[in-house]
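Reopening this ticket.

The earlier resolution said the output was attached, but the attachment link was broken on my side. Pasting everything inline this time so it's all in one place.
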Amino acid sequence: MTDAALLLRALQFASVKHRDQRRKDMNASPYINHPIAVAAALADEGRVTDDSLLVAAALHDTVEDTETTFDELEGQFGAEIADLVRELTDDKTLEKQRRKELQIERARSASPRAKQLKIADKICNIRDIADRPPSNWPVQRRREYLEWAKQVVDGCRGVNQDLDAAFDAALERASHLIEG
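Inline output:
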């Protein structure tokens, strides 16, 4: 299978898994837009050409947010991609605040590939919060998200200067828009 075919298969897989999910913005955008944006940020802004990393980007929320298992991912896409997704997946059995703390803690020890994926994920989330914020998030909650995302990304910096710069630009833009 070609690398392009594998990426398309991953996008199709993710679109089926996320088919009934929506983002929290006022328009309830289809959730699949997010993993597509993350993969695009890696490729376009991060200049990432690592096909396994791009496939993992397309799949990065499937285990965390759907009924997908790591065994299923491994069977469909191989251990390398399943392991990358595993590095990004929060344990939903934990309380939300603990999951957020663990993201900060784990960022420093993540693999270089997982760090890049994490930065791209935060870039896309910050852009969404700036341009299409969750309808029920007041300004203070958006500010808190930006502060937390910066703490996570600070533990990931240094593996891809282009992604670091894109994150900084997204953060600065979002901060200005939120402060209005």
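Reporter confirms the inline version is readable. Residues 139 and 178 are 7 Å apart (CA to CA). The chain has a mean pLDDT of 95.
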